[in-house]
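Give me the fold.
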Amino acid sequence: MESSVQELGPTLVELSVTVPVEDVTKHLETSFRELTRHAKVKGFRPGKVPASVVRKLYGRKVKDDVAMKLVDANLARACKEHELKLVAQPQVEVQAVKEGEAFAFKAKVEVRPAIDKVDTTQLKVTRKLVAVTDKDVQREVDRLRRENADMQTPDPIRPAKDNDQLTLAYTVHVDGEEQAELGSEDRLVVLGAGTLIEDVEQALTGMSPGEKKTISVDFDEDGPPNLKGKTAEFHLEVKALQELLLAEEDDEFARDVGEFQTLLELRLDIRTKLEKLRKDQAEAEVKEAVIDRLVETNEIPLPDSMISEEIGRSIQQWMMFQRMQGGASELTEEIQADLDKRAKRKVQAALLLGKIAEDQNLGVDEAAIEAKFQKIAEETGKHVAKVRVEFQGERMEHLRSEIMEERLMEYLMEQATITEEEVTE
């Protein structure tokens, strides 16, 4: 076999392969001989059909089959010979096999881009530290009081105020068109709980059951993907109102919501958990920022097939999430553009991280896997032997990927320059 490679682009090559006539003849003879043994032709007993008849009746099919066999056998061999890292199924131009002649074919092959070196010297990011305040703790206490409150309909009925639970019906219009996926017929909300857009919450305050109101809300570039930079018109209707009968904020309340003897113990526990949560959030944001800087400072060509595949996965995940939330699954141009951008970032990051793992000789050894098993056993309370048994096949592959990601992230964090900044919430 002879083969050569022509570069058509940074991620696309054309592979030309020629199979010598000896191999072609050998494959043809073998196929015809096998077919002669089993061919069923009217007027002949099985195995007694003359070779000339077999060639006349089945010659074209045999030659097509041999062509595909020669492609399958020699394409993989040629890719290995030229060290091509394929990212998609090759597109093959197959010519007919001719007896007594060499067989040639060409294949367009999409490959991983050649990356000389990944620059990790510009990974400068900021870790934003948000201190836990007494106000934060009080907000959490108030949330627990609302969750454990009794409800009743005021008698006589009155306008809505903080801590009231409302049943809402509303529609959202943008540029005169209703956004069906954003509306609801019977959404339950609690005023003052921080789950509503501020303008909407202000509009609802003071409304009574049966009352309707229309307001306009301007969204900036930090708004939802389909509302960025737009003005939305909310048509609101309060269908029902119930007031929450909040428990007294005392030691008895603390004992009701957890294993605490005093309200002070509850507050200290809330503060500890909030501090850990914000620390974890800050660390996760730093890691995302490091990946963003890695992508920004290392431009590389991206294979179209990898991007298309990732976009497909992103759309499926988005639609699944919409169905779980009970919303419509219609993709707007802005949402599609956002998913496209995220998919390209993910593909670029994966290629760069793969190159780093290769250059730094980062791998997953048995010691790392065993350490992970021990950690899982401690967290779940299971015996480590049982954990080992549970992680087989696909689960083991996921575990290896997780360990690899952790090692890559540890390496990047060591390379990064991280400054800290205290910010308000």
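The mean pLDDT is 89.
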